[in-house]
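Handoff note, outgoing to incoming analyst
You'll be picking up this chain. Sequence as last confirmed:
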Amino acid sequence: MDVDAWNKIKEILRNQIEDSKMNLWINNLQARTEDDQLIISCPNMMIYQYVNKFYLKNIIEAYSSFSNGTVVLDVLNSNSGMEKKVVNKTVNNFVSGNVDTLPNSTPSGDHEVLKRSVIDRKQTRSDQIQSSPVDSSKIAKTASAPKRKSSNLINVFSRTKSVGKEGDLSKGKNFIKSKTFSNFVEGSSNCTAFTAAKKVAADPGDRQVNPLVLLGKSGLGKTHLLYAIGNEICQNTDYRVVYVNSSDFLQDFTQIFGSSGQQGKSEKLEELKNFYSSADVLLIDDIQFISKGEKTQEQFFYIIKNLFEDLKQIVVTCDTYPKEIEKLDNRIVSRLCEGVTMEIAIPTYEERIQIIASKAKEFGLKIPLEAQQFVARIVMSNVREIEGALKNIRNTYDYMKATSVTMDLVKEALAVQIQSREKLINVEDILRLVAQRSSTTVSQLKSNKRYQSVANPRNLAMYIVRTLTEKSHQEIGELFGGKNHSTVVAACKKIKKKLDANDPKVSADYHYIIDQLKI
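Most recent structure output, in case you need it:
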């Protein structure tokens, strides 16, 4: 029964959740039944937190489609059975929320509800050490002196040109302390990476997320999360955190390898290795550049090997999977793949609006929702481009000595982006996608048929062409079989009204087309 029920649930979830996320978060869950309870066990607390936050409601709704039973979500310890029996979630009384605020009531059966307890860092590290094959001297060093927050907080983010004494370190160089978890806009495109980064910041060195590899294209927030991890750890502990871009890391070692004098070279090399190896947390940005130096890779491997055996945290970012980085040492690839790789994707339309609203506050701009939506349709690639667009708007606002941000001002500020975007948008693609979505044909959309099954998608297509291009109502009418100006105006107004009212069908169709048009 338990296998059949869980397989049936997963079959339903496959229609709602991307394959990559199914593999990462759902397929590793275990399920069993006791009486009328379906008990779903997560392999660790990080996965529990994520499933609880994003997928538990989907699981409950799927189960309720063929059963009136209860869903229990818990955490399974592979060594000793049940580690945490977390919470009872019923089909008819779903309570969403944070695991820190679980109810104190106890459901029927053996699964009592427990509040999440704070895991003692010293005990956790001690347990990990006992089960890890590491040198006894490293055990003594790690177990006897767990790092704690102190009155003399040391922030050691640096790339150093003069390695040796701590006084020589360039504190805060190249590191942005304003990048924190609180101003990172979380959404479906980055939530797995965000959850893992928070886990690292809360308990650096935890083998479940060590090493942590943050993967994604440029400008999507990998470095922001790297900064956020470092800032959070330094705020709450006296851990020694070292941040470095891999191109700088490569340069440091290359300079030593190219220097003259074998004795001096050996001493400098040992100093540099000790500098990185003595970190409690090592944050390395753009790891792919290390592949350019064969000797540097050798040193990097031994650094991360020693850190890992010392239960120290390693976090790296890269623009492609470690296995796909050309000329990257297989030993480094193997060590990085031993941890967790979390990908950050291109933000969705809704996420871009959230990012624009958040960044606009940082720029001191009050941008109306309609203008935010317009920017989100024009700038689609990454967060860095959104920041660039907002800088253009801010500069135009200042130059024009405007009193408010209007649509005309936004269009003036983003004229170049708009022109570039239009060159990439094909009206025929819009018509084709709308026709596919609505089970009509392009010829029907261009026809004079007034059936709702044709008129509604035609109105949507006209609205999308109008909002994504600078084409006039008259020009759009010509594209749709010679419709007049007033017909296009009326069609656009109808769709805008439905979108403003959050009409579920129109909103779903609209966002689907917008996402499909990503370039």
